[in-house]
Amino acid sequence: MSLSKLKTIFLAVFIVGLTLAIILNPKESLEASIRGLTIWWEVVFPSLLPFFIVSELLIGFGVVKFIGVLLEPLMRPIFRVPGVGGFVWAMGMASGNPAGAKLTARLRIEKQITAIQAERLVSFTSSSNPLFIFGAVAVGFFNNASLGILLAAAHYLGNLCVGLTMRFYGGSEKTQTFEKKNISFPSIKVAFRELHSTRISESRPIGKMLGDAVVSSIQTLLMIGGFIILFSVFNKVLALMQITDMIASVFTVILALLHIATDLSRPLIAGIFEITLGNQLVSESTADLLDKVMIASFILAFGGLSIQAQVASILADTDIRFKPFFSARILQGIYSSIFAFLLFKPLYLNLQSNQSTELPVFIISNSPDWAKAYWETLIQIGPLITILSLIIYIYLYGKRNVFTKTN
User: Domain Nucleoside transporter/FeoB GTPase Gate: where (predicted)?
Assistant: First the structure.
C-alpha cells in the first residue's frame, strides 16, 4: 500500500475518532469550546485587530517601503532578508502570533520578497507579544511580575538567534535575485521616493483601502478563532482519552535525561497543543521554579500547534513552505529554554535579592503592573470591541457582496 493511501486512511480514522469522542463527551467538549471562544472573544480579537488593520494601511500607503529602504543595511547582511523584514519583525513582536506570518504572506503576494526570503522571515518574526508574556503568563499564571522580565528576555533572545540561524537557510538557491544587491547607507530621499511611488500606484481611494483592511483583518481573525476553539476541544478530548498521558510518558524520559522535573511532562504536552493551557498547567506544577521557567519558555517559543495551524492556513495562499517555520519553532524553543536557564540568576534571583536603587526604578517597582492593568482592562472591554467589529464587518461584507449583486 502506498504512503498516500496510508495517509488517507490515517486522516479518515483520526477525524472519525475525534468526532466520536466529541459526541461521547458533549459536556467536556462544550466547556473546552467555550474556553477557546472566551480566549478569542476577550483577548485575541480585540488585541490583534488594530495591528492587522494598521499594518494593511501602512503597506498600502507605502510606509513599509519607506521603512524597508532605511532598514535595508541592517536586515540584509544580518538576516539575509530585505529591509521590509524589519517592519514585519517589529509588528510581530508588538502584536504577537500570527501577525508575522500574515505580514510575510502579504509581502510575498506583492512580490516584495522571494519565497526563500519569506521562509527565513516568517521563521523569526513569530513570537508572543509582551502583553501576553507579562500580563497572562508572569502575572496571571505565575503571580510573579518579576518573572516577566526573564521570560521576555529569553523569548526575544531566542527569537533573535533563530533569525541568525535561518540566515544560512536556502543558501544554495539559485533564484535569489536580491542577494547580490549592493548594500549602501540608507537614504531618506530614496526612501521617500519609494513611499511616494507606492502611494501613487495605489488606485484604491482611502475609504476603499480602509474597508478592505477591516474586512481582510476580521476574516483572518475569524479563521484564528476557529483554530483556537478547535484545538481547545482537541486538547480536552486527548486528555479524556488518556492519549495525553501516553505521550507524556515518552516526554518523561526526555525530561529525566535533561535533569528537569518529570511532572512537567503533561503540562509540556498540553503546551505543545495550546500555549495558554500549557503555561497555566506549568505554573500550577510543584516543580522547581527554574524547571518551570524553562518549560514555560519552550512553550512560549514553540507557540503550540494551534498557532502553527493558523500560520499554515495563512501561508497556504502563497508558495511559502511551512516546514522551515515548524523547524524554527522547535529551534526557538531550545534557544529560549537555554537562555531561561542562563539568565535565571542575573534576571530573577538577583532581582529578588537586590532591591536597592542600584537597579533601574522600573525593575525595582515591578513595573509589569501596567501589563496586568492593561490585561484586565482588555478582558473587560474586549467583548464589546469584538461585537462592534463584527457588526462593522457584516455591514461592509453585505454592502459589497449582497447589495452590489442585487443592484
Answer: 43-141
Burial of residue 188 (number of CB atoms within 10 Å: 0-12, 13-18, 19+): exposed
Q: Establish how many alpha carbons lie within 13 A of residue 379's alpha carbon, considering only the half-sphere containing its beta carbon.
A: 12
Question: Cell triple for residue 341?
Answer: 536557564
Give residues with Cβ within 8 angstroms of 42, minimum separation 6. Answer: 378, 379, 382, 383, 386
- In angstroms, what CA-CA distances link 216 with 55, 63, 170? 11, 19, 31
In the chain, the N- to C-terminal Cα span, in Å, equals 55
Find where cell 535525561 sits: 257
Identify the DSSP state of 315. H
What residue segments make up the domains of the chain, in order of their start? 28-406
CA-closest candidate to residue 301, choices 200, 172, 157: 157
Find the helix packing angle between 289-302 and 323-344, rounded to 10°.
160
Q: Alpha-carbon distance 151 to 52, whole Å? A: 25
Residues 6+ apart with CB under 8 A from 129: 47, 93, 94, 95, 96
**Spatial CB neighbours of 91, under 8 Å, sequence gap ≥ 6:** 51, 55, 99, 100, 103, 125
Read off the pLDDT of residues 333-366 as tens digits, 9 standing for 90 and up. 999 999 999 999 888 877 666 654 454 444 444 4
Q: Which residue has the cell 514585519?
A: 88
Q: Are 310 and 98 in contact (CB under 8 A)?
A: yes
Average pLDDT score over the chain: 82
Q: Which three cell numbers stand for residue 263?
A: 511532572
Residue 212, amino acid: D
Q: In this predicted structure, what is the pLDDT of residue 347?
A: 83
DSSP 8-state secondary structure symbol assigned to residue 176 = -
pTM: 0.80
pLDDT per position as a tens digit, 296-347? 999 999 988 888 988 999 999 899 999 999 999 999 999 999 999 999 988 8
pLDDT at 386 over 60: yes
Number of Cβ within 10 Å of residue 112's Cβ equals 19
Per the structure block, which three cell numbers stand in for 151?
521570560
